[in-house]
Amino acid sequence: MFKAISKQFLLLLFLTTSLSYSFAQDASADGDVATGEKLFKNNCAQCHATGDAVVVGPGLKGIEERRDYAWLKKWINNPAAVIASGDKYAVDLYEKYNKTQMTAFQSFGDPEIKSILAYVKSANEAAAAAPAGEVAGANDSGTQEAGGGKFFNIVMVSLLVIMVLVLFALIAVLGLLNKLSNKNADAGPEKSFVENLKNIFATAIGNKTIRNAIIWLFLLLGSKATFDGLYGIGVHQGYAPTQPIAFSHKLHAGEMEINCAYCHTGVYKGKQAGIPSSNICMNCHNTIKRESPEIQKIYTAIENDQPVEWVRVHNLPDLAYFNHSQHTNVAGLDCENCHGQINKMEVVEQRHSLTMGWCIDCHRQTDVNSKGNAYYDALLEAHNNVSGDPMKVEDIGGLECARCHY
Amino acid sequence: MDNTNKRYWKGIEELKNDISVVKNADQEFNLEEIDGGTHRRDFLKMLGFGVAAVSLAACDAPVRKTIPYLNKPVDVEPGIPNYFASTYSEGGDYCSILVKTVEGRPVKIEGNKLSKVTNGGVNARVHASVLSLYDIEKLKGPQKAGTDISWEDLDKEVTSSLNSANAIRLVSGTILSPSTNSVIQEFKQKYPSTIHISYDPNSVSGLLEANKSNFGKAAIPSYRFDNADTIVGINCDFLGTWVSPIEFAGQWAKGRRLTSGKDGKKSMSRHYQFETGMTTTGAAADYRQMMKPSEEGALLVALYNKLTGNSIGSSNFKSEIVDKCVADLKNSNGKALVVSGSNDVNVQILVNAINTSLGSYGNTIDFSKTINTRQGNESDITTFVSELKSGKIEAVIFLNANPVYDHSLGAQIAEALTKVKTSISFADRADETAAKCTYIAPAPHYLESWGDAEPKTGSYSLMQPTISLIFNTRQYQDSLLKWSGSDSSYQQYLKNYWQANILGGSSWVQALHDGVFETGASTSTNTAFNADLSSAAVGSLSSNKDNGLEISVFESIAIGTGSQANNPWLQELPDPISKVTWENTLALSQKTANELGVAQGDWAKLSAGDYSIELPILIQPGQAHGTVSVAMGYGRTAAGKAGNVGQNAYPFSVSNKFWTGGAKIEKTKSGYTLAQTQTHETVMGRQAVVQESVLSEYVKNDKAGRFEPMIETSTGPKKPYTITLWNGHEKQNHSWGMVIDLNTCTGCASCLVSCQAENNVAVVGKKEVVRAREMHWIRLDRYYSSDENSEYSIDINHLRRMEIASENPEVVIQPMMCQHCSNAPCETVCPVLATTHSSEGLNQMTYNRCVGTRYCANNCPYKVRRFNWWKYFENDDFDYNMNNELGRMVLNPDVTVRSRGVIEKCSMCVQRIQAGKLVAKKAKRRPEDGEIETACSQSCPTNAITFGDMLDPESRISKILAREKEGRAFHVLEEINVQPQVSYLTKIRNKDKAIASETHEAHEGHHA
Question: According to CATH, what is the number of the domain B551-679?
Fold first, then answer.
């Protein structure tokens, strides 16, 4: 009876351990390119594209081949001065773009400019690699799905190895002890190895301390694993289901830099960001890439009057109320805060755990975006009267139950 | 005056110290009937199942689909509600509404404040109508003799049979829609033999006829209850059901509002009510007198004689308050109003004569705008029945009409319908009439329809669909147009009609947006009175004789005429006075019950003429002796699973006068428990739960009637709030609170249904209500009061007085919901912190944390916490709206549907507060007062509930409290220092003296 239970317990233990070690992946960020990207988006993207396209000013593809770094730095820091100096390239540029002068970025030093250039370069490289990348991405998603099993195997094997090692160590220790005691007794014939092993086991099991230690070790490990496993119920971090259309956020949000709210129309307005309706896709795809089999799926959907059934990636339980606009519009948070770097995801996955603890952690750490919002004036004043620290979400009731549960 | 010398009681059982009340006084729930307990084996089974379920749930997540629009409408954003103005118009009842839709499905009705008729008020039936939209028992498409038929075939067959028919009759309820009337005219042109007959189940054709003979106009004038200093209602429930109750309640409340302070408004109208059964209007009146239905004429003749000094007949009507009433009417100098709900033309002529002699026309009665909500003509329907029986009629169409059920001649109609060659009904289900028809061409619910209404002269209102058709239905206007040979759709017809006849060049889109349109049109105001009073007096006095036991058939607030009977929200809505749910009863006074040998808990057979019904007995304080009241609207046989309850009382309404004499009651069985909600909680001997006084005292002292408890301490008596064990909760941002004016609350229960719709409150059914497990978050406590404070006196005079008091008690209605105590007793006892306090003054309930110990409910001094004894959704034991997919479409997506085993209670509509705050935050400003309203405060037709932020000095609630803090504002159970966020304003009756002192004096006089 006990055996059967302990067997089940072990099985449960393994299961829960494997569940608890969920597959957190930290996207490693290329510092330089990442800074550059941020700078580019905040300062340059209004007028320049990273590719060939002309927005207001010229596209920046191959800019480092066209001009040397010293010229570029001078130009970025003070374009008016370069034009005034009579530099031919600069004057031509000025004439070509209807005498629209570029804004001066005097604060940009070498690191900033270099980062931006690095980003432009990498963006173009990525664009060049895009078709290949797509295929690779598809493969990636496949391996990712299998990733769970692989990881499980690794854990199993390593656990097994550790256990075997522990076993050998114990045997060695016991053997040594036995030998010592035998030497003291100095009697009896040499026993076979198997017999020795038997003896060692018998002694070990007969030893109360060792027995208790082993039982306690298993109990403690088991309960920890059980608790970890239970905490993992309903947590689907890393969930990346296959969607009916192989839509790439990496392409649309990443390379094409389409604003998230262009498709997710509700994200600044309502509780749901919303999945774009097919007519939004058609804004572009009635001309772009019509022949692609993936895009043909949208056409088919419209013809058959059958909406596309996407698989929901981010699921909150019904008992929790979440409102996007509170976080995006009022708090001014970026989508990446909760969704991870969507613009790098070929297939969208749930990057964070979306547990209540995760929500609460953020509410404890995040400052309230109270600047220029008269709603918070009284609260801010009251807070500053008693505390010198910045006002966190927690300080204005951000941890209260009925903010999310009703 | 201290009000603690009054005794409050909630039902006759408590006054009598009935064994069941004594036994259950300290119990929240009536648990006796629960069979068995939980056994060890069951527990283990559940445990095992639970573990298995959890491990299964852990295995993998269900794949959830998210399906966007193919082509998203510009104005629809998932998750953001849209509001559309529309019109509720059912059987003559009218309300201008806003419909909240989420992703294309209506989930909530709110009042339209732009309306000059209903002024943003809504009543219980209007709120509940959104659930009727999702009634699964409606017909899914057209039918011929019980089998499905296509619309094309139906049109073909109907047109050919109409073409060959010689006498066509169109029977309808009151039609408020001018464009529909025009459609009917077109139909008549195509089929000239058509005669349109309209009737009302709750007819006022007596009033229409009287006005026709007195003023030459068969119309109902506008009433101005707000202009009247003295109001006399005679069997007329104008606050609950009569003609235009939402409008009248708003007007009445204007005249009843008081404000404390030096410059406060300290005058109010005086309201007399003479009635048979106790209604909310009678409960709200200052002076109430019981009378039999047969005595209406005698009362009016007495009033007329005393008012004018002439004698139009001799009246033997006995009442202590008639003289007082006459004096007040005279002193009002034209600002007086007498209304009667009688359907007897002679009685209404006398009412007109009295109003004429008082000079009410032009002051409180206005013929320049007439009310169209009741147009039914009794003689027309009587003629129709005789024609039907003679076999003369060859085709009949029923439009919003179910006369087989809701007319006293229903049985005859049912029988004679077989003689008609072609019969068609537009009913949404095979109801009592439609089931007897050849064709059913089901019309959609009003929330799926286009339409319009003219409830009052010059006040127009539009109806627009808020959801696409759920079933294969077609608007009856479209059907009629099609059968008339027109190609136009009714939608186009309506627009054309409005542009040609109503809008006068104004924008159609604007009118559709506003929902209402005022043309300012009026009718002639000629009110020259012309009547033969003595013959009217003779006619109305003819019934004033010994009629034996008289049956009064009345319209209840919840079920009304029964057209919405299959609505579980309305069925479970406790009657504001009797507190009975799920059935109608035989209401008797204690004295009459004793004489007849029946008691509460008995069933009895009530018979009059050749009709009889069997119903449970209800002992109703305030019921006239020698009468029995039965609600209409029950006893449907083809309404559906929720609606087929109770017994039909219409056949007792002989010649539609809503009463009959010579009734007999025989006890049939006993030992029955009514599903009544009032006796479920007791006040545990606490006397200051309701606080009230009379106007004469209030004028002298703003705090009249207030009970101000003092706590004895070592340093002398102190106010409860000055000594505390608690640290309190700091509120820096908002302090949400409510003020409820007991003076203007009529108990109409609009708030209750509004709350139910907003907060996904479950329907539990009759059996569970009997066990005191109803889930309503707001209840309307109804207290009867009499002046007796001691239960143990053996003085015979005392006992006699007690009996008299219970015959016609005063009534106070007190809405009671979670008081959001700042020192909340529930919070301290929760072992898992599932109920906590917010920094905005709310007492929060977290369902997913609750483990169901019910300690909080046990510790709640107001008994407002509700426990989910069962899973009420997707459970066949609770086969109401939450048990089918269509019915669940009414659920509010912003509020969690609670599961079994957790406590729930009023959240002060925290979802609305959060939404309102977010709107303000997005606009980078503070929320404006009135921007955030709770479901109850939003819907109150009398504005008795004011919700707002008590930290905002400019809010209405702050202003009321600033004024009433040293006046009428009180907290319930102040002495226990829980410091609620909800305040009440004392009820002030416009009486000369409180009943306590009046009867005490009489008593002393008797001894002297």
Answer: 2.40.40.20
